[in-house]
Amino acid sequence: MIKHIKETTEYLQSKGFNKPEIGIILGTGLGQLIDDVTITKEISYNHIPSFPTATVEFHKGKLIYGKLEGKTVVVMQGRFHLYEGYTLQDITYPVRIMKELGIKTLLVSNASGAINSNFKKGELMLIEDHINLQGSSPLAFKGVEHLGERFVDMSQPYDTELNSKFETIANTNNIKLHKGVYASVVGPQLETRAEYRMLKTIGADAVGMSTVPEIIVANHLNLKVAAVSVLTDECDPDNLKPVSVEEIIAMANKAEPQLAKLFRELIKNL
């Protein structure tokens, strides 16, 4: 992996991806933040050596470099998932590349289902903690100790200073921002009624199919990290109605202006 990381990093540097300060991962239906970026360079994932390729039709699959609120950023427009057939090492490879390019802070977004009955679709949730239900770890491979500490402490995986700033920005701008625990599952199927009950019992406030692997690797690399979920559907097992991916994406798009505002204001104040 070290050889591949070096090759990928050198390729991107040769294309002008020089010393970004902040990395951003945009999740399902959350690509509009790109409109706020003054883009200097953009490269499709399938042109980057050793980079995975997005296979989900609603993920754009581009790495973008430019300026946002005066800061140099590198943005993943589209991410990777276990349900696409990738390994956890594939999924988190871009985080390692962004770190090698120079980022110190990683901001992550996702679309997720609301488990907490006090949360409603279209609202946002600041992730305070998570539950990994994906069956493994992106650090569970031979030689991981050459890339960082194998036994990473996860007592505070989300940066408290960044989270506090997000809360202040939300209050100032009248944005409803819940706080809660995010559970990450494999997917791609949505959950059954029994699974939603189980998730609520173990303490999850929202559920999705991403984010946790990237957070684990960000902590492995000593990056400051924060993540916000857009709640796209309500997962009440006693009143569960069928939901389509198209509906989930539509709700993510509707809620995205508030998410973009949070990200812009945070980046401005970093």
TrEMBL record:
- For this protein, the Enzyme Commission number is 2.4.2.1
Q: What class of enzyme is it?
A: transferase
Q: In which pathway does it act?
A: Purine metabolism; purine nucleoside salvage
Q: Which UniProt keywords apply?
A: Glycosyltransferase, Transferase
Instruction: Note the InterPro entries from the entry.
Output: Nucleoside_phosphorylase_d (IPR000845), Nucleoside_phosphorylase_sf (IPR035994), Pur_Nuc_Pase_Ino/Guo-sp (IPR011270), Purine_phosphorylase (IPR011268)
Matches recorded under Pfam families? PNP_UDP_1
Q: Which residues form the Nucleoside phosphorylase domain?
A: 22-268
What family does this belong to? Belongs to the PNP/MTAP phosphorylase family.
What does it do? The purine nucleoside phosphorylases catalyze the phosphorolytic breakdown of the N-glycosidic bond in the beta-(deoxy)ribonucleoside molecules, with the formation of the corresponding free purine bases and pentose-1-phosphate.
Q: What is this protein called?
A: Purine nucleoside phosphorylase
Species of the source: Corallibacter vietnamensis
